[in-house]
Prior knowledge:
There is one protein chain. With 246 residues, the protein is an alpha/beta fold. It has a single domain (2-126, 178-196, 213-245), classed as Spore Coat Polysaccharide Biosynthesis Protein SpsA, Chain A, CATH 3.90.550. The chain is 31% helix and 22% strand. The strands form two sheets. Strands 1, 4, 5, 6, 7, 8, 9, 10 and 11 form a nine-stranded mixed sheet that branches. The chain starts with a strand and ends with a helix. 37% of the residues are buried.
Amino acid sequence: xxxxxxxxxxxxxxFPGKPLIDIQxxxxxxxxxxxxxASEKLSKVVVATDDQRIFxxxxxxxxxxxxxxxxxxxxxxxxxxxxxKTGTHYNYVINIQGDEPFIDPSQINLLADLLNxxxxxxxxxxxxxDSHEVLFDAGEVKIVxxxxxxxxYFSRMVIPYIKxxxxxxxxxxxxxxxxxxxxxYRNDVLKKITGLPPSSLEKAESLEQLRWLExxxxxxxxxxxxxxxxxxxxxxxxxxLRRLTK
Length: 246
């Protein structure tokens, strides 16, 4: 059984109230919930929030919500509290980003398919890098893989360095991938990682998944062709709508 959790905070330094913004007649959190619910791989979908307004809104459109603490340092921690509060045993939890209103259900299915192998501890998605601009954008997290499509490292920098090739052509000479931020956790591993202290690499790159790697855990990666459309600022709403129109 797989629990889908959508962490949703009201407070945001760049975009307060983001889950409740209107996008073509529906709130962002409702769009994410409906897209996640369209995945036949999830046994249940819940919104994990720390805000009564979000909780009440989710209930109003027929969704299921769970109130969680305000002081969680990450969505991962919020997912673990939500898992505990369901009172049901789930083998895995999938953390679905609450700021991607047009997430494709097939992406969730793809991630869930990795979990047919019960030895998988953690899993996430990646997408090919097809331009110099994306490759060298520090806001795009790149993934270095081993032969089993398990993450060796995540970085905002470009790894590996390609000697003797102009940087603008690096993406033509190596299969670079960038991270799509959706995670699957085996239930016992989720409990473990929420108890780990922040690591040195995590602090340096501001990437919580580096804490997991530093502690010897394996992160399986699946390739998706569906681009992610994350909304971090009010300006991103129009950008995403324009991209979808095109």
